[in-house]
Amino acid sequence: MRSNAFLYEIGRWAAVVVGIVCLIVLFGGNSVSGADPQEVAEAVTSAIDMENMQLADNQMVKRFYGLDPSDYEGCILYYPNTNMMAEEVLIVKLKDISQQQTVSDAVEARLQTQKNTFEGYGVEQYDMLTNHCYVEVRGNYVLFVVNPNADAARKAFLGAL
Question: What is the pTM of this model?
């Protein structure tokens, strides 16, 4: 009898621990950051080679992503100097975390468009789109980066938040 009660007690505590871990994982990534979008962009762009990219205006954001930058607290896009390159950096500071899905969907659509464009003839660019690419959603920020040093850009992004 005592061993059953002991096992029951261990099971109860294990369930509590698992529940707490799940809550941390589910809600920990949605913390709101007060970081300035320009400072986040500077951290990200200083971590990678920007030689092949240029700063976009609002029209390019609308053209590539279908997003209106005025709907967000901040929206910064760097895109390739030429259509033959796939490197890109998009940083969006959301006004509200309810915008996460809209921006994530737009980024995924852009990524798929780029993959379709480079598949078959732009082997290096296609490889970059599949192996050196991050879509990172953290609270009120979204990062999309396609770059040979995407890992460094992601780390800089997370550090700047």
Answer: 0.81
